[in-house]
Specification:
two-stranded antiparallel sheet; single chain; D-Maltodextrin-Binding Protein, domain 2; rod-shaped; alpha/beta
Length: about 300
């Protein structure tokens, strides 16, 4: 049913005149008559009894008038809400964020809520690889993980932060020179990794394989602080991003940056590459403003 026909019919009833309805709608009287007749043809019965004195509603006309007013109100509400979304006065963004990464985004979250207080931001905590799968499946619109991503998922990504990976262990547990340790040196030692569903572990496994090395993994955990604690207790050497060193309590442990090759913990925003909502574009813009840089997706679809 044509919404415009409903509007012309309702205006005609309101003014009790085709002529006055046409003036109100800024169209010709013949246009109003045609649209009302078209609506009657679609309904299959007359809606108005036309005589020289006034317009009267038929039984069907009364129903169309009542329900038509509800339809027009719904359309007006729809247009208003669409405008609010376009103006970022309304919206919802579901964002996947690994627990190891969330500490880096406190200021971004604060800035986003200050700039767009009416956009509902829903955070889902999962490992990096878990979030990659959620984004690919459409369970969340955007997420964060560690590069390189799983190529089979065909995701779009924008790097936002890069930090070196360091080796952590008890004093004298490994040899280092000027605060640095070669990757091949670590092959000789028991290593403590995060569990296999962490993107950091995926990156470390790839780095060892690319260098032709076989890591000896003595233990794994889903908690980064437990990984560090096991290393501090002498159970092996943990490999963690540099920002987490400052969160460890002082004690009988040492840390050295991994070199030859250098390993980087590169955090990236990711999305499915098909569509970015207004709320997601706003999130990208805030990230760019707070973290620096200019990324794809800000001026159009990725």
């Amino acid at each position: 049913m044509d919404v415009r026909s409903l509007r012309y019919f309702i205006e005609t009833v309101k003014h009790q005149s085709f002529t006055q309805a046409a003036q109100s709608l800024s169209v010709t009287q013949s246009t109003v008559s045609k649209m009302v007749r078209q609506l009657e043809d679609e309904v299959g019965e007359p809606l108005l009894i036309r005589d020289h004195r006034q317009l009267q509603l038929t039984d069907c006309g009364k129903v169309v008038l009542e329900r038509g007013q509800e339809v027009l109100q719904s359309v007006q509400r729809l247009l208003r809400e669409v405008h609010e979304v376009q103006a970022l006065q309304r919206g919802r963004l579901e964002l996947g964020m690994p627990p190891m990464i969330n500490v880096l985004f406190t200021e971004v979250l604060k800035a986003f809520k200050a700039r767009h207080p009416r956009i509902e931001l829903v955070l889902h905590e999962e490992t990096g690889m878990g979030i990659e799968r959620m984004v690919a499946a459409g369970a969340v619109e955007m997420g964060l993980s560690i590069l390189p991503l799983g190529p089979e998922l065909n995701l779009s990504a924008a790097p936002v932060a890069r930090h070196g990976v360091w080796a952590i262990g008890r004093k004298n547990s490994f040899r280092s020179a000027q605060g640095k340790v070669k990757l091949e040196e670590l092959e000789r030692h028991p290593l403590i990794f995060l569990s296999d569903d962490f993107a950091l572990t995926r990156m470390l496994r790839r780095a060892f394989a690319h260098a032709g090395l076989q890591p000896h993994i003595a233990a794994q955990s889903g908690q980064w602080d437990w990984v560090a604690s096991m290393a501090q207790a002498g159970m092996g050497i943990a490999l963690l991003p540099q920002p987490f060193l400052s969160r460890l309590e002082s004690g009988d442990w040492v840390a050295a940056e991994i070199v030859e090759p250098a390993l980087n913990w590169e955090v990236a925003l990711l999305w499915n590459g098909r569509y970015l909502s207004q709320a997601a574009k706003a999130w990208l813009q805030v990230c760019a403003d707070v973290l620096g840089g200019s990324w794809p997706g800000l001026d159009g679809e990725a």
